[in-house]
Amino acid sequence: MGPLFTDEITSIALAISQPATSPRQQLEGKLDALNVRGSQTAESPVVTKESLIEPVQRINETLRPRGLEFAISEQSSRIITKVIDRETGDVIRQIPGEEVLLIAERLEELQGRIISLEA
To answer: Could you tell me which Pfam families the record lists for this protein (predicted)?
Structure first.
């Protein structure tokens, strides 16, 4: 996942915080918020990892009571979503999973080697 845009974070926060009339509408709102990134133009400002820390913390404060937590991966700067058991604090599910993050990291390493071999 590439860099996030300010509008995308705002859209996700609004979609999550605004109640919808049905679970389907809630899901559609969240999906619409996630699709904002695809409609960004090249003129949109790119957000750095450091500038995401505070918004992610605020989103976590709001969503942690509902069992959701967001983090930024140290290695790849990807957004990680965790579903947490509110009673025990155990991670029920992580998206993307640890295995997927390791595979993505390994693919990036291999891509660098392939490019250097062709040059």
So the answer is: FlaG (PF03646)
